[in-house]
Amino acid sequence: MARPKKIEKEKKKLRTSVCMTEDEKKLLVQKAQSAGLELSPYLVACGLTKVIKAPITYFDRQGIAQLARVGNNINQITKAVNMANLDRRLFDEAIQQIEELQELLYEITRGK
Predict the structure, then answer these.
(1) What is this structure's pTM?
(2) Looking at residues 73-91, what average pLDDT do you find?
(3) Contacts of 101 (CB under 8 A, 6+ apart)
(4) CB 98 within 8 A of CB 71
């Protein structure tokens, strides 16, 4: 019995070439075999499902450093406010801002 014909849009018509070392190819073939796939469908599946984080740029690093400095300054200010026994609401607001900055820094450095 013959295999059923593929629907036109399911036919894979395009080819592309990929440059890699012999060691990289061996590793990819091993991973594909472990997944029960040939190399081509494995690479397509990886490319369509895996998220690759973009590297942090120079400007991102500058922004992260600036945020860290601001966070440190706010932390020093809150310590001074606490030691001076000033209005507790101001202190709580400053702590909240520090926590928000820390959360932002965490998200930026983790690429989210």
Answers:
(1) 0.44
(2) 74
(3) 67, 70, 71, 74
(4) yes
Give me 21's structure tokens: 């070392």
Rounded CA-CA distance 39/45 in Å is 10
CB atoms under 10 Å from CB of 56, counted, come to 13
Write the DSSP assignment of 85-103 as a string of letters: T--HHHHHHHHHHHHHHHH
Token pair belonging to 45: 């599946």
Given the structure tokens 């607001």, which residue do they identify?
93
Instruction: Give, in order, the Cα–Cα distances in Å from 82 to each of 6, 70, 91, 94, 99.
Output: 72, 18, 7, 10, 16
Q: Which residue has the tokens 């080819």?
A: 15
- Token pair 């073939």 is found at 29
